[in-house]
Design goal:
Length: 97
């Protein structure tokens, strides 16, 4: 694929990482403060503000690396991993709330 798609995808992933950090930090704190949750749910909510943005940054780095070694164009599907995990988190947060 072309370099412009790598740049645009990476910029989107970094922007998504910042958005997810802020959104997940406030939503998980709100859910943890308003409801009586088990230790397991609190651990997931506490790890999510750091885990989801870290996955976004990791995927951007992996795609850049795979582009530099000419791995093919299938690795562009990796950009969907943070989006799918974000949907899973928001469904989980909605379930807890």
């Amino acid at each position: 694929m072309r370099l412009i798609w790598i740049i645009l995808g990476t910029v989107f992933q970094l922007g998504l990482a910042m958005f997810l950090f802020v959104t997940v930090a406030f939503s998980s704190a709100g859910i943890a403060n308003l409801s009586n949750l088990s230790k397991f749910h609190i651990t997931i909510l506490a790890a999510s503000p750091f885990g989801l943005p870290l996955i976004c940054i990791s995927v951007a780095g992996i795609v850049i690396y795979l582009y530099t070694v000419n791995a093919g164009s299938v690795y562009y599907w990796l950009y969907l991993v943070p989006l799918i995990l974000s949907i899973i988190y928001f469904a989980y947060a909605t379930y807890l709330n």
